[in-house]
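pasting for the record
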Amino acid sequence: MASTVPNAQLEASDSWYPERHKALYILLQLVGRDFKLKYRRSALGVAWSVLNPLLMMTVMAAVFSTLMRFSSDAIPSYPLYIILGNVTFALMSDSSSQGMASIIDAASLLKKVKISRWVFPVEKVLFAVVNFVFSLVAVLVVMLFVRVYPSWTVLMLPIFLLYITVFCCGLSLMLSALSVFFRDVMHLWGVVLTAWTYATPLFYPIEILPSWMLSIERFNPMFHYVAYIRELLLYQRMPTLRLNVICIGFAVISLAVGFFVFRKAQRKFILYV
């Protein structure tokens, strides 16, 4: 299976790793393994983590600023606006999609080795975070190209990463549990992500939204997380206390719901995977 670790490694870790360190050890092994698998036999390797968001930004900037004429005087740099929205949404999309299938993909391992089940969906989130960090190189390239130079607000990026990582962990835990019992979730989630993409101002200015839709956006977590990173890198100002509270709130709610659903369901995983 794609998401398994060699049994010998896990059994060896059982023999000498304390219980509290075992999950961390396995997490690191899984993240390292996924990283190697993703770029195996690729000529450019990890460079794709930089090139992909750059290419996507180029296409979107050409389409939406030239053909559809989406732009705004309130946006200092439209290409930077696009790439920040794209890489942030991709972090949530990739981590949730991969995390959703993590328990099913690890079925053979779960039947053989005693292991904390939450490790698998959380590992997918951490792997997506690693790719996100590499994609920030592409963001830096765009910033230098459009002459929006990083300011001291970049120091707040670890706080942003903490917020969105916790949010994605909750989402991944919940989806991974639901998909074990209801495989239709795996098909429906793709539709949800598509709708969520267009409902979030990733490539169009917020100013074009009518007032009723702006009211709905208050309940869209990704609207606030995208706004947060744009505040830091595009507008180069400190996010407001209100925005911080909202991001923390969505992260805590997501983790609480995801943990509750996962904990209630995990004992029956072995019967359905």
